[in-house]
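Priority: low. Protein: Glyoxalase-like domain-containing protein. Input follows.
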Amino acid sequence: MPSQQVYIDHLLLQFSQEQFETLPRWILDNFTVIDGGVHTGGLSRNKLIIFRDGTYLELYNWITKPEDWRERLPGDFALTTLNPITAEASQERIANALASDPGDGGVGVTYSRPRKAAAKTPKGSMCAGRLLSQGIPRRTRRPGTNSIREGAQMRRFSAMISLRHPSGATGIERIDVVVPRGGLSRYSDVYASIVGAAPEERDGAIEFRLSAPGVHSFYGSLRVQEAKTAEDEQFLRQKGIGISSLALRSETGQPISFSIAEFLQ
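Result:
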């Protein structure tokens, strides 16, 4: 299988109105946070924690939460392509991969044609891009990511990548995804088709090692493992398949980890 076709883009964390307007102390103590804007339609807004390697954390808040809010969100995390790969080319590549070996492991994953996504910044300018949304059959567990972003929007943040954080964080080091027992092979196939590269097996899990979108000498990993503990099983019942933990790269060389479960959909 060829080398990676997508890069880790960002992680989405949901905040209540109170948390969003008065951010938790651990965020303010560790990160430089910038105002993002209001998404098209005015239903939601965000703040951003942007890292040197081009990855970022999106702090997301519903201004008005619609009944179909789960379908409107881009998933726990998003991946991105880089120029000159277009959204159309990305959709075609993934569709072909899901329809052939290794396929989608029988999960039934599909990706939509590209659609526009936009937000208005606090200064009134519009930031627009395009993304592919993931489709999944009813009663099927959705993989932790359900969107692929087009590289053209990458990087409205280019002038901000020089931001420094009190914690010394420089990017996303590792995203851990937990899947049901017996499901590792199925979801390994799904992610291999989406990423465009084969994973490495390590300690009973699989890992996709991905270079960062902004600094290719920086690497992060997408780690997928089966539920092993009662806590993992409870997480799956409450949240479904998704990120179980996050580690950030640091200038000190020691990963920065913190609990994110309460901020996941």
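The first helix runs from residue 17 to 21. Confidence is low (pLDDT under 50) at residues 137-141.
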